[in-house]
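User: My instructor asked us to take a sequence, write out its structure as tokens, and then describe one feature of it. I'm not sure where to start. Here is the sequence I was given:
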Amino acid sequence: MPAPTIARHDTTHPLPAEQAEAVLALADAAAAHDGARPLSEQFRLSVQAREHDGVEHLLALAADGSVVGYAQSRASDSGDGGDGGDGGAPSGELVVAPNARRAGVGTELLRALPDGIRLWSHAVGAAADAATDFASALGLVPVRSLHVMGRSLTSGDPWPEAMVDPRYAVRTFEPGRDEDAWLALNAAAFAHHPEQGSLRRADLDQRMAEPWWDPTGLIVVVGADDPDVLVASHWTKVDPPTGEVGEVYVVAVSPDHQGEGLGRAVTVLGLDHLRSLGLARVVLYVDEDNVAAVRTYTALGFEDLEVHRQYARG
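Assistant: Let's start with the prediction itself. The structure tokens for your sequence are:
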């Protein structure tokens, strides 16, 4: 096929609604073909919201105007903490329509992305091998690994009972009361995380508007004498809401209260909640470098399922 036209959309040229829909349809087609979603949650939400605050959308257009490829670049201060060992480099994701691959579309999109970009691949199986070959051919090397771990909620080694110090109490998140306190906890707990640490109120509101949002699935540990002081939380997720798989979505512990066993305790509370819903399995995503978290999850019976990788120029 002829070389595609690359269309840029940013603050000056916002992403039109019809093209946002085309991008999501392309991503869904790629997911069905490859067996894995090419766009992670934050990148997909940015397409849905047609966000352009620190975000650039790149569309590869065929001669007839159809979208045959898409890439997104996120500046280090728009959903990326920029202090996770990446030097503040922008992060990106890229997807090409299954029927337009091996025709230079991905290469053209990559060339249009900012210098120094760190590009995620969420592919698995044969698609992961193809992504590795694509990256290698363009001089990209893996610089970060994100592990997908999982376990059964109905069988296997049982997890221990949650032990919470009497200084603390456990309750669920209350919309209209806890948003700012939870964001402050999250920012402190993930101050050096390249994505999670810079979650904003708009990001939280967007997630709370999603079909899977359930405030009873966001468990918070608070001061026994001050229930508005959040010291730890476990945000669980079930997406789709009618599915059989839950997710350890976000576990946060205040740096002032680390070393007290709250991370393990609040993780167990979340597992208890997911099991109470009658779900069959639970999954989570954890950075390979987060040795303490990997150790905690392994001790709770989680095992590796997949590894997602981020690539950059060597």
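For the description part of your assignment, you could build on this observation: The chain is about 30% helix and 30% strand. Try explaining in your own words what that tells you about the chain.
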